[in-house]
Amino acid sequence: MCWCVKGGMSSRAVRFLSQAFDWVTRRPIERAGLAMVLASFFSVPLYLVSKPFGSIIALARTGGPFPGEQSCGTSECHNTTSNSGPGSVSIDVDGVPISAYLYTPGETVEMTVRVQDPAQQRWGFQITVRDADDGCMSVGSFFGRPADTIVRTEGAGSGCAAGREFATHDVAKLGGSSGVFTFDWMAPVADVGPIIFAAAGNAADGNNARTGDLIYTTSESVDAVAAPPPPPDPVVPAGGVVLSTLVPSVPRFRGSRSSRYSVRASALSRFASLILTKQVALIRFLGARAWRSTNGAHRSSGSFRHKRTFRLRHLRA
Length: 317
What we know:
- With 317 residues, the chain is α+β, with helices and mostly antiparallel strands.
- It has helices at residues 11-26, 32-42, 257-316; strands at residues 88-93, 96-97, 108-116, 122-131, 141-143, 149-154, 164-169, 173-174, 178-186, 195-204, 214-222.
- 27% of the residues lie in helices and 23% in strands.
- It is elongated, with a radius of gyration of 40 Å.
């Protein structure tokens, strides 16, 4: 992101011009025209003619709160104060601002860095993700997009071991009032606690000099998705029938332990309810049968006494 080779001629161009001058002074004058053409070509700042421009920029220039991290606004780079202009740099995750993002271990998301400034016309960026403990360890992995973004790794330095990872532009974008860069990021496979995303955006004016460029920086602390709470214990009433208060939950991961527990508890609750229903139905059936049996016996006894009384009266008459 730090276009430290822009403005003036590179050392490569200076060496070439020196050799060309010696060659021209010792050779016929007709070769001077060819030397001038080649010299003018190499005097152009290197980033204008080099396609993989992101591969030559300085790393650890996001301005994030990490050991040894600098900004591209330093005097040896663009020589400007960060965030001093009317523009900005922002980070989105799957189309949502990073301030609203919570990472899920192992997931891969699409990230977008947007650099905007109404008065500028050339755009670049650099981003890194670090742990919140000491800021030395990169978290997760970047994946670039062809002809848009690339991924580079920084060596050891500033008290940090080698392996710090950065995503940056492949080629500086031109035109418009903003530049948008897209890449992928895979979260760590386990919850490592809070992590910090830090990005810097270069809004350049395209005058091929160190002057007139503006640097914007941003950083955001992101937490992991909260683990689901443990399921409540089942309620056991006085009757001894277990009435579970568990409800099926929507698992975040297919086949997770919490989802299997919820499904089993729900099945157990339905089975207990079915047994209770059957018991009630059986009690009602047995009660009705006993009532019919008792009522029939009473009727039979009353009919027998009536017939016996009628016969006695008939004999006495």
